[in-house]
């Protein structure tokens, strides 16, 4: 059975019904991992998703801020709960779908100053990464696991529009890149989008609203990720290669999120 996963920082789910409907029609994900839903569980637009064929939900919401959800055409089972946000924000939700554990995260952006002592938001971000890294280091890499979401780090030189400049800006500083590398190494995760687009080529999933034409300014960052455990390699490379894509055309639609959806296809039992 094919399972197409899409991760998408929707930047408020309730006002974006038309955008979501169009994305689903064109991209047809079986599982949709959403970040920044910006609503509580009872406010989440379940009826809209049910009308589109998604009848299974795991939602961790918060009033006006943050919030994550997993919406699925396929049946959902519970996953082990993760307590990785020291401030208690709604930034993590998990599920087991088709025998695969999916953990969906909205990691803190980290504020403006890349210093843990001077900036509590940056400390929160690094603490989040440290807890995740410790958690996944305990896991058996043979087990099928997907870590996805807006991880708020652009780790590679070509995951940013200007490596030298961005190395001083939160999202691509050396300490954040090291934190991301430690997370990837913790379970020997495979970075699926980079299996398709080589690290030597530019790749982004987020563009600021400040630019009237995001393509013309071309100042994107790759903040949205799909990482898979070695136990999912066969499922992810079922055609002999990975199938993963950043759908940057969605960023150009009317009233978009500042993030584009990122998808990956798996063949699961």
SSE map:
Elements (H helix, E strand, L loop, with lengths): L1 E8 L7 H11 L3 E5 L10 H6 L4 E5 L7 E5 L19 E6 L2 E7 L13 H18 L7 E6 L12 H4 L7 H13 L3 E2 H5 L17 H4 L6 E5 L4 H4 L7 E3 L15 E6 L2
Helix pairs in contact: 3-5
Give a structural overview.
There is one protein chain. The protein has a single domain (2-267), classed as Endonuclease/exonuclease/phosphatase (Deoxyribonuclease I, Chain A). The chain has 8 helices and 11 strands. The chain has helices at 17-27, 46-51, 120-137, 163-166, 174-186, 192-196, 214-217, 233-236; strands at 2-9, 31-35, 56-60, 68-72, 92-97, 100-106, 145-150, 190-191, 224-228, 244-246, 262-267. Strands 3-4-2-1-11-10 form a 6-stranded mixed β-sheet. It has a 5-stranded mixed β-sheet with strand order 5-6-7-9-8.
Summary tags:
Deoxyribonuclease I, Chain A; 269 residues; 6-stranded mixed sheet; 5-stranded mixed sheet; alpha+beta; single chain
In summary, what is this structure?
It is built from 8 helices and 11 strands. The chain has 269 residues and is of the alpha+beta class.
């Amino acid at each position: 059975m094919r399972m197409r996963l899409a991760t998408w920082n929707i930047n408020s789910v309730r006002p974006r019904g038309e955008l979501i409907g169009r994305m689903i029609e064109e991209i047809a994900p079986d599982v949709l991992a959403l970040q920044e839903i910006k609503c509580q569980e009872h406010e989440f637009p379940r009826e809209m998703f049910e009308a589109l064929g998604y009848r299974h939900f795991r939602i961790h919401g918060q009033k006006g801020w943050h919030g994550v959800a997993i919406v699925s055409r396929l049946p959902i089972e519970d996953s082990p709960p993760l307590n990785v946000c020291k401030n208690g924000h709604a930034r993590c939700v998990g599920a087991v779908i088709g025998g695969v554990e999916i953990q969906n995260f909205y990691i803190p952006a980290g504020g403006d100053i890349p210093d843990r002592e001077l900036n509590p938001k940056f400390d929160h971000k690094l603490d989040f990464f440290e807890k995740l890294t410790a958690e996944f280091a305990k896991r058996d890499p043979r087990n099928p696991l997907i870590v996805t979401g807006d991880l708020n780090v652009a780790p590679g030189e070509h995951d940013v529009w200007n490596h030298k400049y961005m190395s001083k800006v939160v999202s691509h500083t050396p300490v954040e890149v090291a934190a991301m590398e430690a997370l990837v190494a913790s379970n020997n995760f495979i970075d699926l989008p980079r299996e398709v687009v080589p690290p030597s080529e530019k790749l982004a999933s987020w563009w600021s609203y400040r630019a009237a034409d995001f393509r013309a300014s071309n100042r994107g960052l790759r903040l949205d990720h799909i990482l898979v455990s070695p136990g999912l390699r066969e499922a992810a490379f079922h055609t002999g290669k990975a199938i993963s894509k950043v759908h940057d055309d969605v960023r150009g639609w009317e009233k978009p999120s500042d993030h584009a959806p990122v998808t990956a296809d798996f063949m699961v039992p």
